[in-house]
Structures are given as structure tokens and as C-alpha cells.
Design brief:
By secondary structure, the protein is α/β, with parallel strands linked by helices. It folds into three domains: 247 residues, NagB/RpiA/CoA transferase-like (Rossmann fold), CATH 3.40.50; 89 residues, Orthogonal Bundle (Fumarate Reductase Iron-sulfur Protein, Chain B, domain 2); 67 residues, no CATH class. 53% of the residues lie in helices and 10% in strands. It has 23 helices and ten strands. Helix 9 packs across helix 10. The protein is globular and about 90 Å long. It binds iron/sulfur cluster. Iron/sulfur cluster binds next to helix 14. Pfam families: Fer4_8, LUD_dom, LutB_C.
Length: 456
Amino acid sequence: MTHAERAADFLLDEARTDWHDESLWQVRGKRDTIVHAIPEWEALRQLGSDIKDNVLSNLDTYLEQFERQATANGVTVHWAKDAAEHNRIVHSILARHRVNRIVKSKSMLTEECHLNQYLKQQGIEVIDTDLGERIIQLRKEPPSHIVMPAIHLKKEEIGQLFYEQLGTDEGASDPQYLTEAARQHLREKFLAAKAAITGVNFAVAETGGIVVCTNEGNADMGVHLAPVQIHCMGIEKVIPQAEHLGVFTRLLGRSATGQPITIYTSHHHRPKEGGEMHVVIVDNGRTEQLGREEFRNSLKCIRCGACMNTCPIYRRSGGHSYDHTIPGPIGSILSPGIDLKKHGDLAFASTLCGSCSDVCPVKIDIHDQLYKWRQMVSEEGLLPKTKTIPLAGAGTVLSHNGLYNIMGKAARVALSHAPRVLVYNGMNPWGKTRELPEVPKESFKEWYARTHKSKF
Ligand code: SF4
């Protein structure tokens, strides 16, 4: 199925679509308010972008420095070239400790590597401890947003889910009651877990420490209680020095949820006494993306989700319509690099309005990259005939003045007299929800020539 077909499914529930759209727009509004409260916001964005430029140009150096420092701190550092190797490494650590149940905080990298499914096949139970992640895990769904994974669900649906799976009162949908029920349910899991897995927001090359940002404290709870802690990160998460952290934590909280800082910004430098700390550094196609000059900027992403909250297409098509771990505008420029044939249509899931680039805290030129991916899709011959044939015709007409005038006149006559079904039918998805304006008697050129005769 294409993005458009999946989006059509989401749009069938009009009330949900409106509510999804409004909820995300509210988050965008909160972001705007807090961002406008600090005069140096644009300078901060530029600084964040410049630091990331430096990181991308010296990635090997910073990663090796991180490994040296982390190892000196007593951390075991692992390297994984792809998702399969990442999963094998995590499993081997767990197998060595005979762990059959783990707690995991939100990590888009482990989603990307399908770690949960892999560990389940190996007989290991994975409990996602972020509330939104736990909800979608109970529903056996992937996340629909990178910061708010269950944003597509109404509180009544969550109430029903908890009634069926956690034994809460039937019909209860009060968020405070449901959250308390989730806390009690998760507390047992935290206490029983022998290992905890987290993602990594930032890895500091200078110190060898990692930073994990959550709003629920669930990553901290898991890591502090379990003797074995495993942190999984993409190679692009490294930053040079501790002093750069302040730049990114200020950008991240404000852009993600309109908060001055994420509630729990936790630093982990070494294993607990008697415990083990592992960091798994994963490539999984990132080096290839780094080598694509026009698209390497996408690796600057700090996963704030702001581009999703602002995108008119994402807000009205839902995260699942992207069929990729990272949805929305940033997902649409990352996924074609992984599989152009499968995800090439995502480059067209955009109005190219540029709002995503405007809000991006690290100034990724997202809409320009979407446009470039469109050209790549076309050059690779992956555009459907329904697009290539009309576009070839339009190209011929638009490049010949006389032909353009004739076709314009013919279209005006045809549209004025043709039966409605010729224009508004199943072959024309544009016309399903729109009406053409009234057809004018003359073209703009004719009107201009007639009304501005004296000036020629
Ligand atoms: S591309 Fe920019 S706005 Fe979108 S998630 Fe990444 S950092 Fe945030």
C-alpha cells in the first residue's frame, strides 16, 4: 500500500483525524510560545546545527574518543554494523546473565532494529516502560509518533485496553486513574527486571558518558534497579564536549513538548557497584546516508518530533500511514535512503510548505531534501505511469507558448460544457474533496492584453 492509501484509511474516521490534527497543533503552539520567550532562539538553533556539522565531519574521531573514555570509565562498548548485529549483541549480553525479562525505556533505535520481536523469539519478555510505548505494546502496534507514541489513541480506547489487560474499572477513562494503574502495573516489572535497556539522546565524546531524556523517569527507574544496563545508540548521537549538552537540551525540550527542559535529563558515566554498563553503537545505514552529500544533514536530527507536529500531512494522515519507524517529514527523508522503491512515495507526502524546516531545532533543510528525493524517484524510473504520462504532457504544453494558449482555451470550453462526471470521478482523487473554481471566459493573458492595451 502507498502512503496515500494508508492515509485514506486513517481519514475514514473524521472525528479522530480532526482531534489528531488539533492535538498536535496544540503541541506546536506550546513550542511556539516557549521558543518566542527566548530572544537567542535563532542563534541557539544555528549553534546546534553548527555543532552537528562538526560532528558529521569528524564522526570517526568523536566515536573513537567516546569509546576510549567510556572504556576507561568501566563501560563495555560494542559496535554493530546493522540491526541484526545489534540484536545479537543485546541478546548475548542478556543470555550471559540468564535474563529472561527486561524493562526498556523508549528508544527509536531499538524500534528500528525490531529488538522486541527478536528478543521475544529468543524467549525473553520485553516490557516497554514509557506509558505511551506500553499502551501501544499492549495493543501490538508500532508507535505513531517518536515523542508521543500513542497520540493517535483516545483516552476511552486506552481505558478499554486497560480494562481488558490490566483489570481497571470498566468504562473508566480518567487519565489520572489510568496513569496510576499503569504505574502500579509497571512497578512490579521494574522490581523483577534483571536488565534494563534505554536509548541514548546524547553521547559525550569528551567524558564517555551518555545522556537519556525522559518525562516519566522510567529509564532511570529501570537502570537504577537492574544490575545490567544496556544503552543503544545510533552513531550520530555523539557530541564533542559536555559544554555542548546545554545547547541541545534547551533545543530538545522546547521543540518536543514546549517544555524548558525534559523532566529527567539523566547522565550515566559508569556501571553501578557490582553492575555492568554496556553501550551498543549502531550504524544500520547511517554511514551510507552520511556519504550522500545532499542528504547527510538528516543525520543531525535530535528526534524532537517538531516537524511532525507542524506538518499538515502528518497531522491529517497519522504516523502509521508512513509505514516506517520514524514517520513524518524526517522519516520521509530518512526512509528513501534505506529502500527507495518501498519508501519513495513518502517524498510526495508533503506540500513542500517548508514548515518542517522552519521549526527544526538543528536547521535540517527537510523540505529541500524531500524535493531532491522526488527527483531521485523520478530519475530511477519509480514514478507510476499515472504521474509520468500527465507530467510529460504538461511539460510539452508548458514549454510551447502557442500550444499553451490553445490548450488553455480548449480546457476552458471543455470544462464549461463537459458533464460533471468527466471531472469528478474515481480517476481524479483531487476532485473527491474539492471543487474547481468557476471557469473564466478568458485567460489571464487575454485579460491582461485587453485591459492593459494602452501600456503596450
Ligand atoms: S528533523 Fe528536526 S524537527 Fe524533525 S524530529 Fe529531527 S530535529 Fe526534530
